[in-house]
Write a structure and sequence with these properties.
Helices cover about 20% and strands about 25% of the residues. The protein contains 7 helices and 21 strands. Strands 5-6-7-8-3-2-1-9-4-21 form a 10-stranded mixed beta sheet, with helices on one face. The longest helix has 18 residues, at about 200-215.
């Protein structure tokens, strides 16, 4: 009798994950997902193995370009951008008072379908996507319409499932106070691709891919279901077409810090090199800006860029309750402009040999982060650059 009751209870808890999709697909108002990204569907009502789920549940088609996950604390909302265009949006619940969600630039550093917190009494964190090793992650959970977590970003179940199947390690995550979004930008100081056939930098891409797979395997206590960082199957610009399939090249991340007056480069979470840079009027703030390379253009001689600029300061509303700052939505951000980001690029002088070296490594999904800050202490083994702005 006891065994039958236990079985029934287990079945009840497993059913909502399969039926939630119909609820979210047609409502509520704050959740949408376009038809070209079909909903995740369970074939069975039992917990599937990794191989089963990967084969039967991954949404098709795959993303058209680099994915960017942007969370607005004020709006308690997550927005998903594919190739610079908004494709999905949903409500979230972020950190409550005393346990704030950090603001800044992050990326997915590990994923686990069925995870339990090793900090908060083994609390369930299904469809977990970790963005810091200290415990901040995106995961399915209760979304009551206000901040309620201990720092993580809780997602509605259906959104969490579908997002989990779209992302890879390395997918960019930006957490801002208000609403920010990518905007297309052109600037002569942005890196452009350069032929790298036979160069040592091109060989580094293949080596980095292998080294990350090895490093992830050694992270057994921290990483479950580790994947290779987001990579693209590309023909290197300027090289002769290969008879075999194009090699997978891991995108690079470039970080320029005003605080340190240095430029750092990582590839597949692995540090490559760093060099000093000159910044015009170094006492004046730059802000924090995330530039993302989209796709090759003009037969591989150019690449399209977008930028997300993160404001550093937010005005207070007069009369706000002491100790509680009323949410302020900056209407100016609804029509983003690349002017500030362009001005920032024009102030940074990078050695020409460094520009050429980076240009040879450049691929779609590569990124350039510019900030007044240094990188966070969270930046380390098996992470991209993590920049905490607040």
């Amino acid at each position: 009798m006891q065994r039958a009751i236990t079985t029934a209870v287990f079945a009840i808890f497993m059913i909502p994950a399969g039926i939630a999709h119909a609820q979210f697909l047609f409502g509520p108002q704050h959740t949408f997902w376009p038809s070209q990204y079909p909903p995740y569907k369970h074939k069975h009502h039992h917990r599937q193995t990794n191989s089963e789920t990967t084969k039967s549940a991954r949404p098709e088609p795959l993303p058209k370009g680099p994915l960017q996950i942007i969370i607005s604390i004020v709006d308690q909302r997550v927005s998903l951008f594919d190739n610079g265009a908004l494709i999905a949006r949903s409500s979230v619940s972020t950190g409550m008072e005393g346990h704030p969600t950090p603001l800044g630039v992050f990326s997915v550093i590990s994923k686990q379908r069925w995870h339990r917190s090793n900090i908060y009494s083994a609390a369930p964190m299904p469809y977990m996507q970790r963005i810091t090793w200290s415990g901040i992650a995106l995961h399915a959970g209760v979304v009551p319409g206000h901040p309620a977590s201990h720092g993580c970003i809780r997602l509605k179940n259906d959104f969490a499932v579908r997002l989990w199947h779209l992302t890879k390690r390395g997918t960019r995550v930006i957490i801002a106070h208000g609403d920010v979004q990518p905007v297309e930008i052109t600037n002569p100081h942005l890196f452009q691709p350069k032929a790298a056939s036979g160069s040592s930098e091109f060989q580094t891409a293949t080596v980095a891919t292998k080294s990350i797979g090895t490093a992830a395997a050694t992270q057994g206590s921290l990483v479950s279901n580790a994947e290779t960082p987001e990579a693209a199957s590309l023909q290197v610009p300027g090289s002769a077409p290969a008879a075999s399939a194009p090699k997978k090249i891991v995108p690079i991340s470039i970080f320029v810090s005003r605080k340190l007056s240095k430029l750092f480069v990582r590839q597949g979470f692995t540090p490559l090199f760093d060099v000093p840079v000159k910044i015009e009027n170094p006492e004046e703030p730059l802000g924090t800006h995330v530039f993302t390379a989209m796709e090759f253009q003009n037969e591989g001689t150019a690449i399209r860029w977008t930028v997300v600029s993160i404001p550093d300061e937010f005005p207070r509303i007069e009369g706000a309750t002491k100790g509680r700052e009323a949410p302020v939505k900056q209407t100016a951000l609804s029509v983003p402009s690349p002017d500030q980001a362009n001005a920032v690029l024009n102030r940074i002088e990078i050695p020409q040999d460094t520009v050429e070296r980076i240009s040879k490594l450049l691929t779609p999904a590569s990124s350039l982060i510019i900030s007044d800050n240094g990188f966070s202490h969270e930046t380390g083994k098996d992470t991209d650059f993590i920049v905490v702005t607040h």
